[in-house]
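Troubleshooting: if your tokenizer reports a length mismatch, compare your output against this known-good record of 386 residues.
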Amino acid sequence: MSTALLDAVRLRLAESGAEPTPARVAEALRREGRLLGDAEVLGVAARLRSELIGAGPLEPLLAQPDVTDVLVTAPDRVWVDRGAGLERTDVVFPDAAAVRGLAQRLAAIAGRRLDDARPWVDARLPDGTRLHAVLPPVAVGSTCLSLRVVRPRAFALEELAAAGTIPPGGEQLLRAVLDARLSFLVSGGTGSGKTTLLSTLLGLVAPDERIVLAEDSAELRPDHPHVVRLETRPANQEGTGLVTLRDLVRQALRMRPDRLVVGEVRGPEVTDLLAALNTGHEGGCGTVHANAASDVPARLEALGSTAGLDRAALHSQLAAALSLVIHLVRDHSGRRRVAEVHVLDRDRAGFVTTVPAAVWGAEGFEQEAGWGRLAALCERSGGGVP
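Known-good structure output:
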């Protein structure tokens, strides 16, 4: 089908305000003097639907079950990540204006503004897909569009083990951590699988416990019968209505959580989370960006400073609030895996440091200096490590 005919059908549907159903597409084609078979009409309807209310030419990529990210850096440069690094696709946009138009339409679907006055957007689409877009001239040359797919269900721990994210037998250690109600953070870089792992771990929580999630963008999908989900909200065009992650943490504390979860600790809310975990809320957890597990105390120290919490006070709360750090990495092949598990300790000056307890091994987790402390923490809560 020619582009001109497709545009004519699109215009007729736009004028009538009708959904691009097969029957309406067939009627529009008849009005244009074209008769097509059922298969062709269905194809046109699917293409128009993806352009009008879907992700346009990116829709087939997002529908593939193994795709986690779709990235557009130019009209003829579209990349996907299937868990083994970036791959260039053969998808091509007509021009830079088409990429910009798609980004603005997706932003509008998410209820956000994207234009020259506000040239970037970070939002969640109705199906859960995470949207990020930057317009020129901030993005040099072409609109930069990033879509992160959030799958409708969490992976089972056995599935992560089969995929190589957890070493052989490692799921027993992670189950012991959850059963012992230890508070922990999942750390790692962007795209290392922090949210995926945390969703899976939350699915191991006892079904009679109440999980309250506080997130910037609702991405966690734990397979659990009692989950309360809270999501931040940006200010409107008048500058009112802002709801921050710190607001959500404070509200979550009044909702009788058995497990308080912060999707990503990235600002002043770290002080409220640590305070909550120091007031009897065991088993709390969250994610944080860090290059290594040993860098987490320094990272939290920097975040705490944004809330006016001095170093000594932050480390004092941290030592009492958290028990361990689970760190993920993405290796050179693109595979995401749990690289190490650290327990927390305090040095002579009273500052928190991390001690390796278990590190990745081809045959399973290998025990390190902190293994005894990890075992003691699990046993103290009535459980035990394998």
